Every structure is written in structure tokens, then in C-alpha cells.
Amino acid sequence: xxxxxxxxxxxxxxxxxxxxxxxxxxxxxxxxxxxxxxxxxxxxxxxxxxxxxxxxxxxxxxxxxxxxxxxxxxxxxxxxxxxxxxxxxxxxxxxxxxxxxxxxxxxxxxxxxxxxxxxxxxxxxxxxxxxxxxxxxxxxxxxxxxxxxxxxxxxxxxxxxxxxxxxxxxxxxxxxxxxxxxxxxxxxxxxxxxxxxxxxxxxxxxxxxxxxxxxxxxxxxxxxxxxxxxxxxxxxxxxxxxxxxxx
Length: 247
Ligand SMILES: Nc1ncnc2c1ncn2[C@@H]1O[C@H](COP(=O)(O)OP(=O)(O)OP(=O)(O)O)[C@@H](O)[C@H]1O
Hints:
Elements: E1 5-14, E2 17-27, E3 32-36, H1 43-50, E4 58-63, E5 70-73, H2 87-99, H3 107-119, H4 135-149, E6 153-157, H5 165-180, E7 184-188, H6 192-198, E8 201-206, E9 208-214, H7 215-218, H8 221-228
Parallel strand pairs: 3-7, 3-8, 5-6, 6-7
Antiparallel strand pairs: 1-2, 1-4, 8-9
Helix pairs in contact: 2-3, 2-4, 3-4
The protein binds adenosine-5'-triphosphate (ATP).
Adenosine-5'-triphosphate (ATP) binds at residues 14, 19, 37, 39-45.
């Protein structure tokens, strides 16, 4: 069976400096994977490359999931919530990918959106402006939006940043339910203990691939030590990356 995603010797560079260096591997359908690594390791770039949001320098990303069945939660810092939109309307945005902008919201769809808000613990928040929510409440809204989107592949970039322990626990329960429903979930995370407890698969990045597979085999002391010693800065005088260069 085709994997949900296959990376074939993927290299992505920003102004010539590789953020991802010759990465190969597969995300199988229905797997729950944490992407971990130090700051600047290329984790967000990896998610963006799956969505076609960054230019690929060499290699290939094979995505065997229809674009409209992919949900993406960027880091909160990348989301503008200054525009005046209600919580319920924000959840309705989850339908847009499937329906198109002019699809209209049926009563059944509105009911599902309200149920999604209930599921994330935000019953009664429907009319609130998203700009007035706390970071944790807003993250719950974004999870409700993914719930109505009914996505097959869910990409989450640091979903628990600035989110308290209770909200994290609630959102982890939703991720667990997605896994049980055989959706493919890929989440960028920093808390290794959390990854060990909740994520069966892990991918450890340090621009290059350090390890990818069962979490217990990936998050070993030796692998984490290798990742930690990724050079902090890229060398401005480095030669351009050669696509066939050994990793
Ligand atoms: N748009 C951009 N232009 C230039 N360089 C970029 C751009 N986006 C990311 N980078 C660089 O690419 C590298 C990887 O960045 P990325 O955001 O993918 O890392 P990350 O692992 O998600 O980091 P963090 O844990 O800090 O969020 C970093 O060195 C970063 O400075």
C-alpha cells in the first residue's frame, strides 16, 4: 500500500542554506508521529514542504492524500487573529476546503460545528470574537475547526505552545481519537516525555534525519545527543549543497 507521504531525498534550502538535508522516509497511513529536534532543526519547514508552502531544492515529496483532506495548524505566531470573526465562523472555515467559499453552511453543518466546540470545551463561546480569546482557548477553536474538516492527514505545528496542562490534556485526547479513527497525524513537539507517552512514532531532525521510527528507538540518549550538537548557525561561506552528496 502507498504510504500517506513519502520523502525522497528531500532537500529544502533558504537562500542556499539547507534547512532540510537529504531526508528520506515514509509516513504510513493512520500513523501518529511526533517531529522533534532542536530549534532551527527544520521541523516547521518539513511540515511546510508537505503542503507545498516552501520551494523544494532537490528530491521529492510524494503526498498520497487529496489536498482538501489535509488539515494544517501552523504555529500560533503565524496566525493573524486581529480580523473580526466570531468563534463559530472560525470553525466554519474548516468547511471551506471541502465546500469552497460559496458552498454555504447547512443546518447540519452548523450543528456539527457547535458539537465540535462542545467537544473542545468551548460551548457558549460561539459568538465571541476570536481576537478576545486566550491563546489556549484559540487553540481549542482551531482544533474544533479541524474536527469539522474531517481531514485524513492532520499536520500540527507546536500545538501545545502557550497552552496550559488541562488544555493540553484535552487536545491530546482529541489527537488520540484521530489516531483511533486511523487518520494520519504529524505533530511538531518539544516535550520528549509527552512524545514518549502519547506518540508511537517519532522523527528526530537536526536539518538532516537523525532517526525515524518507533519512539522508544528514536528518542535514545545517543540520538538526542547527536541532534543537540547540530551546529547552531549555518556557515555563510559553505559551498552550495550538492544534491547527491552523502548525508
Ligand atoms: N523564510 C525563511 N527564510 C530564511 N530562513 C528561514 C526561513 N524559515 C526558516 N528559516 C531557517 O531555516 C531553519 C529551519 O527553520 P524551521 O522553522 O523549519 O525550524 P524549526 O525546527 O521548526 O525551529 P523551532 O523549533 O525554533 O520552531 C532555521 O535556521 C531558520 O532560521
